[in-house]
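Progress against Task 2.4 (sequence-to-structure conversion) is shown through the following example record, which the project officer requested during the mid-term review.
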Amino acid sequence: MEKYAAVILAAGKGTRMGSGEGSEIPKVMYLLDGEPIIHSSVELVKVAGIEKIVLVVGYKRELVEEYFGDEVEYAVQEQQLGTGHAAAMAEGVLRGKAESIIVFYGDNPLYKPETVRALINLYENPVTGDKPTVAMLSVNFEDPMSSFFGRIIRDEDGEVVGIVEQKDCSENQLK
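Structure tokens generated for the chain above:
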């Protein structure tokens, strides 16, 4: 059993990017420095030291599968039912094969490997040895209204109590 496995979400159509239904390629196959965006996401995970990688594919999945072949494993999201649903599609592929799972976006490859390793270190909590149920990275934007990302909802103590897609946010949550 692997200590860590990566689930990389790569099923989206890319509607916000102007692709989607009728588009020739899914958003993760758009080129970034001459390679599909998803290539950078997979390389990030490998350089961070995670060997077991599952791509959750959906829209035009054959393009992603053709690009990677058997270099990674695949889970399929037939219907686009959100991020949580996409991540859940990897459960069958990973059950009993990894102690902990890290979920990445296939269209957000710009994290540094050392940031991923720092997250793992935080999760491992070498001071107390206690592992939390979830460890996650989030970003504070100087101008959150310029972002199309969802919002991490926190309570008065700063604890995460929810995640809301931008389109579903209240005015207060958008800020």
